[in-house]
């Protein structure tokens, strides 16, 4: 009788451990799927920006997104974000970025991306100006299960221009 009870307890412990392993595996699979989805989405976003289509580029942001551009105040509305991109995505501009790291929260509703960008455009003097730098994007899964960027920050790796007198 006692050995039968021990066997039943062992089975319960065994199946409990099996369920824990299964649930952990499912969580890892979901996180991997989210990471792949964000990687694909961000590549599409970079490609879209490269076409200089302002409206399609801005569509990757959530309605409550914030953009933190270098040497400028935070931009907090879709209208202001659109105006920022409209200044950047002008004829003659090339822009692209690549992800170096993605981290998805265990909750599965937030993720952050770090990477690098490259941009070339005409400077204020009309001469070509090349820039490269780093960026951080924070994505949030929306109620419709789509990922949208809720925070975007980028800054140049180039030295700040020296003011001339």
Q: How would you sum up this structure, described in words?
A:
- This protein has 165 residues and is α+β, with helices and mostly antiparallel strands.
- It has a single domain, classed as Roll (Nuclear Transport Factor 2, Chain: A).
- It is built from three helices and five strands, in the order ααβαββββ.
- The protein has helices at residues 2-50, 54-58, 78-88; strands at residues 61-68, 94-104, 110-122, 128-141, 147-156.
- A five-stranded mixed β-sheet has the order 1-5-4-3-2, with helices on one face.
- Strand 3 (110-122) and strand 4 form a beta hairpin.
- The longest helix has 49 residues, at 2-50.
- The radius of gyration is 23 Å and the shape is elongated.
Main sheet makeup = 5 strands, mixed
Question: Number of folding domains?
Answer: 1
Structure class: alpha+beta
What is the level-2 CATH architecture name? Answer: Roll
Strand content: 25-35%
Task: Briefly note the CATH topology name.
Answer: Nuclear Transport Factor 2, Chain: A
Q: Identify low-pLDDT runs.
A: 25-29
- The helix tally amounts to 3
Approximately how much helix is present in the residues? 25-40%
Mean pLDDT: 87
Total beta strands? 5
* Helix/strand order: HHEHEEEE
